[in-house]
Amino acid sequence: MWSDLSEKVILVTGAGAGIGHALVSQLVSANAKVIAVVRSEAQAQQLLAIDKERIQVVLVDLKHWQAVRETLKGLPKLDGLVNNAGVAIIKPFEQLTEQDFDAQFDVNIKAVFNVTQAVLPLLRDGASIVNVSSIAATRSFAGHTAYSATKAALDSLTQSLALELGPRKIRVNAVNPTVVLTKMGADNWSDPAKSGPLLAHIPLRRFCEVQEVVDGIGYLLSNKSSFVNGHHLNLEGGYAVS
């Protein structure tokens, strides 16, 4: 699977931490070339320490529509795009503010729309786009009202783009994990009182590991998924059937 991506050029947003950082490391190990979009200089330096030859860092705030377009327009041709950047503000519905709402929609769906549209002329025919969504797009969880709405919108966008970009043989898919054990995920779900009820609905009785999401993305980027298009790959240990 990963050997398919050797010498391919892949753009990854949200590359500075968690899933994005792990994905960049995996792609570089597979001899791919990565354009890593990050939001801080510290994140940029951490990525460049991995491999300065194969990683090109782009520093931009995805919430700024025109700045994103200006920054991305000079990039080389792309074989893949991973829209990984995301914001999760978990609060009861009545406590969510306008700022909370906008922060999540601006990154989780508007930025995906903007980045994808901005780099569309750079995507080679036959390229692959992978959007990092969530099982929360189709399942309800307390405190996830706005977040879930953004991921439902992202799943809809994924299917629409699969239809519209199909004539160029560009495939568009999503990975939809449950809780992923990034540092943030582990910290947020370390309390058994919080994690227990959710784990009880997962037949495998555990949460998703970062590498499992990375492998799912790699599959969808690679030629091994050449006839997979408009699909949402649920990474949730059987939650949907429990």
Automatic annotation (TrEMBL):
GO terms for biological process: glucose metabolic process; lipid metabolic process; xylulose metabolic process. GO terms for molecular function: carbonyl reductase (NADPH) activity; L-xylulose reductase (NADPH) activity. The keyword Oxidoreductase applies. Residues 8-192 form the Ketoreductase domain. The keyword Disulfide bond does not apply. Keywords: NADP, Oxidoreductase. It comes from the Eukaryota. Belongs to the short-chain dehydrogenases/reductases (SDR) family. Homotetramer. This is L-xylulose reductase. It comes from Drosophila lebanonensis.
